[in-house]
Amino acid sequence: VAIVQYSDTAEINFNLRRYSTENDVLEAIRGLNHKGGYPLNIGAALKYVSQHAFTVESGSRLLEGVPQILILLSGGRSGDDIRTPVKNLREIGVISVAIGTTDADTLELQTVSQEPSYALSITDYEELPSVKQDVFSSMNRDIVFLIDGSDDVRSRFSAVREFVAKVAGRFDLDQRKDKVAVVQYSNNPELSFSLDTYITKDDVLKHIASLKPKGGRPQYIGAALQFVKDNVFVEKAGGRRNEDTKQILIVLAGGRSRDSPRGPGNALKAAGVVAIAIGSRMSNSAELELISSNPEYTYSVADFVNLPRIEQSLMSHLTEMAVEVESSGGKKINCTFY
């Protein structure tokens, strides 16, 4: 983290290289003094950031592929032109989010921001704590739950159902924002409802509450993953991959698979789907790791009745998930918002 204050001139408080621990960063932030000065020259400040903050000498890791993120807090209109500095920041791959009060210029905020949805307006700086949720909610998701509905899970299916309802209920379910689908599997997959079935959160949660285990055995997770790729995350079923919507798969596996999840799992990842795998003691940990996009996205519980224990960790991963944005030149960058 680095911090730059600006008014008529820009001044760096500390650069990206200065502190190595979270405690030191937070202590430095708490010790900040108001810079003062007038008027606001945002263009000059952006140029300063480009030349003095996002550089290797100042601790930038752009050359290592680390996303470069700028968060601008603006309390008024700029006294100089911002277009050229904004262009220069984009050319070096910086992803910008702009937050302004009512005294700020909305068009300027949108010009600075990587996308219009990354330009946020607040009445006063006291509203800043609410901005995190605004940034989070601007990133739409297609979320598919692939749940084990086999005979082996029948006695614990209510715990699975309650967990899915709790997790789904924490999203902003709306056809224009977050959408949810549910698929059950055992010896074959079965669609409970697709991404475009319901318009309201209430309808989604009502259907989840009414879910019953499909039954059957053994479990074929590979075939189920292939079904999800071919029939659920697709445009004709409400999938929004072509709209750069983040697509997330949450798998709940209650046992070992009779087929390999490797091929279908890799195909989902290649299509940009972020996969999270949750298993019980009867699951195969190696299979879960093949499914998940990241080792940190693999969970294991002794029994599905223990699913509430991982809920908060799961939600943390979901809300920290990277969003792919395109910098100038067409380069795709994974940008993570917390």
Strand content is 15-25%
| Topology, number of strands | 13
CATH architecture of the largest domain: 3-Layer(aba) Sandwich
Structural class: alpha/beta
Please state how the strands of the largest beta sheet are arranged side by side.
Answer: 8-7-6-9-10-11
Number of domains: 2
Radius of gyration: 23 Å
**What is the 3D shape?**
elongated
Q: Largest sheet, if any?
A: 6 strands, mixed
Number of helices: 11
Q: What is the level 1 CATH name of the largest domain? A: Alpha Beta
So, the CATH homologous superfamily of the largest domain? Answer: von Willebrand factor, type A domain
What sequence of helices (H) and strands (E) makes up the elements?
Answer: EEHHEHEHEHEHEEHHEHEHEHEE
